[in-house]
Amino acid sequence: MTLAPPLGGPIGTTSGPGSWATAQDAGHALSNMLGGTTGAGGISVSDLLKAIGAQLTSGNIPMVFLKQIRGCTAAAEAAYQAVVEAPAHLDRWTGGWFATRHQISILPCDSHPIAAECGLPAAPFSSVVAFWCQMDFTMMPGTVVAGG
Predict the structure, then answer these.
(1) Alpha-carbon torsion 61, 123, 106, 131, what sign?
(2) What does pTM read for this prediction?
(3) I want to staple 25 with a disulfide (CB 3.0 to 4.6 A). Which of 20, 58, 104, 131 is the partner?
């Protein structure tokens, strides 16, 4: 899957020497960017960026999905639900670079208390680091981690 950036480059792109030539370049740049910084919820940004860097370097980026099949007798009910983790295997890297920081707002919703469950502030907050990448990938078989 390739998502092309809008004309003129990705939104929020910062000026710089260009684009990371490989996923490994991106991984090293991200893992070396911030040391000791703590983001929302007390997460060490350094540790997070090192993990992202390692995943980009390995070529397998884990993703989590909700697999759901609608019930046949009641459209509002699910006949099957499971949380599935599957790696996106990097097939081709086209480019990527740092982006400008963003203000993030997560609207509260009783059925999906995302901010509360992730330890994020309810009020708008700023991203600590932002980047974009353009790549082709293949979704690999997954593993059910909850439900099923």
Answers:
(1) negative
(2) 0.55
(3) 20
